[in-house]
From TrEMBL:
Keywords: Aminotransferase, Cytoplasm, Glutamine amidotransferase, Repeat, Transferase. Its EC number is 2.6.1.16. The lineage of its organism: Bacteria, Pseudomonadati, Pseudomonadota, Gammaproteobacteria, Thiotrichales. GO terms for biological process: amino sugar biosynthetic process; carbohydrate metabolic process; fructose 6-phosphate metabolic process; protein N-linked glycosylation; UDP-N-acetylglucosamine metabolic process. It catalyses: D-fructose 6-phosphate + L-glutamine = D-glucosamine 6-phosphate + L-glutamate. It comes from Methylophaga lonarensis MPL. Its main location: cytoplasm. The gene is glmS. Transmembrane segments: none annotated. The active site is at residue 383. The keyword Transferase applies. GO terms for cellular component: cytosol. This is Glutamine--fructose-6-phosphate aminotransferase [isomerizing]. Catalyzes the first step in hexosamine metabolism, converting fructose-6P into glucosamine-6P using glutamine as a nitrogen source.
Length: 388
């Protein structure tokens, strides 16, 4: 193939280790040390961002999980209302579309059939509602201020051709079916997008913009540090080989990261995995906990840590095997019955989900390696789902 494996056994492994560079390439020319460059979203971006009042993100698979992380960021940090849904649901539920909405489609390939159809449907609605209004035939109000933006890793693709605005992730070609570096760069793109919107709409102060850009500049290094935990993760993966189920827990942005971790494990190791927001544990999944059900918790040092810790005690009390990814300054490790990877330090609200996800990628990869599955081409799956 054109893309060489080099020292790596699989493309997935290679792509996991390419992430620091993929982030550098995606940031290149889009930020300075202190500021985001709004114009990297196109010359009309400033005018569009000024007008929009809400975001609606549409994607599939791993790209959908990137959208879910962005929803937490959008509302918490930038105070912009945001909804996110999978394209196949959006298409067929006859959604109410509101004025001044920015529709964001996210896709590695730019060819996913449902995502493309959703984008075409939005454009058709915009078209027909404005012509109906012009003809004055119905009392459907005119739809105004609808714009579409696609975040995509392939410059010449169906989605980039359809969207009003395009932002390219510069992850480089992704060969492994299970998405890794594309996801990471989608999150970087979304952080840049939200910061740009927040800047234009003045929902964040300049000091916040400076903090975010500084954090993003440090991200390649944070990812590099996360990758250095590979050996510890290999040791943990060994305890997985005979398991049939796994439960991933997180709160806040770590909930979609838990979902992405569970998806990766399913995709490449064929172990049934589920993700739950940790607070929902007692509403069902706790009944499943025993020594055969490993629980993976993502526990950054944040406002929710104490709440998460009490969830973990509930798991421990039921004999569950706990694997915790935590901050170096956290103290869950002092407790027995937990396998702990002290993986991060100094991550912020934007960089944390991106950094913790790297650890989960490594975990799935090494579990799959032990199980001997076809890591780069898992059974029944395709890199790009171009038919419905
Ligand atoms: C397939 C791939 C996933 C990917 C999803 C969406 O299911 O196996 O890795 O996340 O499609 O693809 P897209 O190219 O739209 O991001």
């Amino acid at each position: 193939t054109a893309v060489e494996l080099g020292e790596h056994r699989h493309y997935m492994h290679k792509e996991i280790f390419e992430q620091p560079q993929a982030v550098i390439d995606t940031l290149e020319g889009r930020i300075t040390q202190e500021q985001v460059l709004v114009s990297s979203f196109g010359h009309q971006a400033e005018t569009v961002f000024q007008k929009i009042e809400r975001l609606h993100i549409i994607a599939c698979g791993t790209s959908y999980h990137a959208g879910m992380v962005a929803k937490y960021w959008a509302e918490d940090i930038f105070r912009i209302p945001c909804q996110v849904e999978v394209a196949s649901e959006f298409r067929y539920r006859n959604p109410v579309v509101e004025n001044n909405t920015l529709f964001i489609t996210i896709s590695q390939s730019g060819e996913t059939a449902d995502t493309l159809a959703a984008l075409q449907q939005i454009k058709a609605m915009r078209q027909s509602q404005s012509s109906e209004h012009a003809a004055n035939e119905t009392n459907v109000p005119e739809l105004s201020g609808i714009s579409t933006l696609t975040i995509c890793n392939v410059a010449e693709s169906s989605l980039t051709r359809e969207a009003d605005m395009v932002f390219l992730t510069h992850a480089g070609p992704e060969i492994g079916v299970a998405s890794t570096k594309a996801f990471t760069t989608q999150l970087v793109a979304l952080a840049l997008l939200l910061t740009s919107i927040g800047k234009v709409k003045r929902t964040i102060p300049e000091s916040r913009e400076n903090l975010i850009t500084n954090g993003l500049q440090k991200l390649p290094n944070l990812i590099q540090q996360a990758l250095m935990h590979e050996q510890e993760i290999i040791d943990i993966a060994e305890t997985f080989a005979d398991k049939q189920h796994a439960l991933f827990l997180g709160r806040g942005t770590m909930y979609p990261i838990a979902m992405e971790g569970a998806l990766k494990l399913k995709e490449i190791s064929y172990i049934h995995a589920e993700a739950y927001p940790a607070g929902e544990l007692k509403h069902g999944p706790l009944a499943l906990i025993d020594e055969n059900m490993p629980v993976i918790a993502i526990a950054p040092l944040d406002d929710l840590l104490e709440k998460l810790k009490s969830n973990l005690q509930e798991v421990k009390a039921r004999g569950g095997q706990m694997i915790v990814f935590e901050d170096e300054r956290s103290d869950i490790s002092s407790d027995s019955g937990f396998k702990v990877v002290k993986a991060t330090t100094n991550v912020g609200r934007i960089t944390a989900p991106i950094t913790y996800n790297i650890l989960l990628q490594l975990l799935s990869y090494h579990v799959a390696l032990i199980k001997g599955t076809d890591v780069d081409q898992p059974r029944n799956l395709a890199k790009s789902v171009t038919v419905e």
